[in-house]
């Protein structure tokens, strides 16, 4: 066992109350993830924002300069970043959840903390990266003030908080399903990557729910049942008030609860077999 793994296992084995132990263990593992991820990188956390920045730049150029698509959502670059940053958190956490058990098998076997923490710490570490990337969105908002279509903040910016909470719960729920199943079905790891790629284009990131409505009302209804639709609506409401759609938000909240419960049930059912398999 490596020194890092041994030290972490010792720290996790200390005697605290269950709630305190869970919180301390969660933070220990999360900070360990962040240190390992960036300790050997010269650019550090900058890498976590380069991907959404590059994607935003490409889509902004294609849709506003080539197809002149962004006229309904100006400034379009802010419209994109307000959804791309949360999406990066979501896809990164779900993708890493496929390795939650296989990556740290020795450490998981040597500790007795609730095994769900191995999924929760991934969501938390990616969530911290998301929060650290928000200044980039702020810079785009400030830069837009010097353009013909400046971004305007409004009081609905407070909905950013429930959006973060909903996304965290949703991502944990999905992670609790994916993490144990990958142990038995290794091809699921690649399948998840493909599904996430499709989910990007099926989610209101480069478009809005209103865009679907203009294509056909049925598309709007179908799009509302994507659990990310209402969440993205909450993220964008503080900058684009018309994006707030309570119907899709209610569906997102309901589906988030359902997926979280399903995640808990699947995780508990699979855990004994997972511990034997790893």
Q: Give the helix proportion (percent range).
A: over 70%
Distance between the termini: 15 Å
Number of strands: 0
Structure annotation, total helices: 12
Structural class by SSE content: mainly alpha
Shape: globular
Q: What is the number of independent domains?
A: 1
> What series of H and E elements makes up the topology?
HHHHHHHHHHHH
Mean pLDDT figure: 87
Main beta sheet strand tally, sense and closure: none
Radius of gyration: 20 Å
Low-confidence stretches: none
Strand content: under 5%
* Oligomeric state of this protein: single chain
Short précis:
This protein has 278 residues and is mostly helical. The protein is built from twelve helices and no strands. The longest helix is centred in the C-terminal third of the chain and has 32 residues, at 246-277.
Which characteristics define this entry?
single chain, mainly alpha, 12 helices, cell membrane, transport, ABC_2_transport, transmembrane, ABC2_TM_bact-type
Write a structural description.
- Helix 6 crosses helix 7 and helix 7 runs parallel beside helix 12.
- The mean pLDDT is 87.
- The protein has 278 residues and is mostly helical.
- The chain has twelve helices and no strands.
- It has one domain.
Topology summary:
Blueprint: H1 3-12, H2 18-38, H3 46-66, H4 76-97, H5 105-110, H6 117-144, H7 160-184, H8 188-202, H9 209-215, H10 217-224, H11 227-237, H12 246-277
Helix pairs in contact: 2-6, 3-4, 4-6, 4-7, 4-8, 6-7, 7-11, 7-12, 9-10, 11-12
Organism: Schumannella soli
Pfam family, one: ABC2_membrane
Family: Belongs to the ABC-2 integral membrane protein family.
């Amino acid at each position: 066992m490596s020194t890092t793994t041994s030290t972490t296992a010792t720290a996790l084995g200390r005697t605290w109350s269950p709630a305190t132990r869970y919180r301390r263990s969660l933070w220990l593992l999360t900070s360990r993830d962040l240190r390992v991820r960036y300790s050997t990188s010269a650019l550090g956390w900058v890498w976590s924002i380069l991907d959404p920045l590059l994607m935003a730049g490409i889509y902004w150029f294609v849709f506003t300069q080539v197809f002149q698509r962004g006229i309904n959502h100006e400034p379009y670059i802010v419209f994109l970043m307000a959804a791309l940053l949360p999406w990066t958190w979501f896809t990164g956490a779900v993708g890493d959840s496929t390795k939650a058990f296989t990556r740290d098998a020795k450490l998981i076997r040597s500790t007795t903390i609730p095994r769900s923490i191995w999924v929760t710490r991934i969501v938390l570490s990616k969530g911290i990266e998301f929060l650290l990337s928000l200044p980039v969105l702020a810079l785009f908002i400030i830069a837009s003030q010097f353009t013909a279509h400046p971004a305007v903040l409004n009081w609905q910016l407070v909905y950013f908080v429930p959006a973060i909470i909903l996304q965290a719960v949703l991502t944990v729920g999905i992670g609790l399903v994916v993490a144990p199943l990958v142990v038995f079905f290794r091809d699921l790891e690649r399948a998840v990557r493909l599904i996430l790629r499709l989910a990007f284009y099926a989610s209101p990131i480069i478009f809005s729910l209103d865009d679907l409505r203009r294509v056909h009302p049925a598309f709007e209804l179908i799009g509302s049942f994507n659990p990310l639709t209402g969440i993205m609506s909450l993220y964008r409401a503080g900058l684009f008030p018309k994006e707030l759609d309570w119907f899709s938000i209610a569906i997102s909240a309901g589906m988030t609860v359902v997926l979280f419960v399903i995640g808990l049930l699947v995780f508990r059912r699979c855990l004994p077999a997972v511990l034997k398999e790893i």
